Amino acid sequence: MKALAIAFAVISTLCLADVKAFCAEPLKFGVAAMISPQETVKYYDQIIDYVGKKLGRPVEMVQKRTYEETDRLLESGELKLAFVCSGPYVTDKEKFGVELLVAPQSYGEPFYYAYIITHRSSKIRNLAGLKGKSFAFTDPKSNTGKLAPTYMIGKSFNLPPEKFFSKIIYTRTHDKAIEAVAKKIVAGASVDSLIYNYAASKNPRFTSQTKIIAKSPRYGIPPIVVRGDLDPVLKARIRNIFLTMHEDPEGREILAGIKVDRFIVPKDADYDSVREMEKWLKKNIK
């Protein structure tokens, strides 16, 4: 009993001394479902563990099936920060004031693209060739998986997707959209260039069965965002951890594994092209 009492006293002292690694409430870090759950764990788990280690407190990954679910948790305050898609960032900033924290830089630039893909054996050579065919979007709120291809079709053919394609499915994640094309479940899909390139380098089982027939203009890369009410000191610490990650041997190894050069502080103006697409579609495509 005496030993137990001493152990309890030691633990209590540590908590009172604010040794956060033992006692702090986990910081919940949201991850939007850009890739399937098992791949998400592989992609983000090491980053989140690294941040927790550097902060000296537990950091918990909160993974949701849709962008909408992640947005709701951010808006309610259950999440204080999250990896999000470019489209939801634009919407969430306007709706409840999320702020840019950092964004990854990959292949030398903080931008990415929508790839329109078909099966490698298909005779389809361009976007026009997909008219009347089946097509996969990813998530209704995805930039490269929904908004960008909708804009591309609207600008080129003055039609909404529902009147351009014969059938539309939603795969929820980009890797599943690639798989749907590789297995000829659909004739085409629009996917995130970063995820496509990552899959092609790590496990080309499905990307090798596809080809890229169109590429969008560039967009501001999916960022990490924070709520406006996040403690400024904590926000600065987390930002610094990301910004210096590439200078640390362990951090460099993690970044290399996910094909990220480094993290940078993005500009809100980098996402103006997303805003312009949304504005044009609301005005011109019904």
UniProtKB/TrEMBL annotation:
NCBIfam families xrefs: 3A0109s03R
A Pfam family that the UniProt record links to this protein: Phosphonate-bd
Family as reported in the entry's similarity comment: Belongs to the phosphate/phosphite/phosphonate binding protein family.
Protein name according to UniProt: Phosphate/phosphite/phosphonate ABC transporter substrate-binding protein
Highest rank taxon of the organism: Bacteria
Annotated coiled-coil segments of the chain: none
Organism for this UniProt entry: Geomonas terrae
Gene field: phnD
A single cellular component GO annotation: ATP-binding cassette (ABC) transporter complex
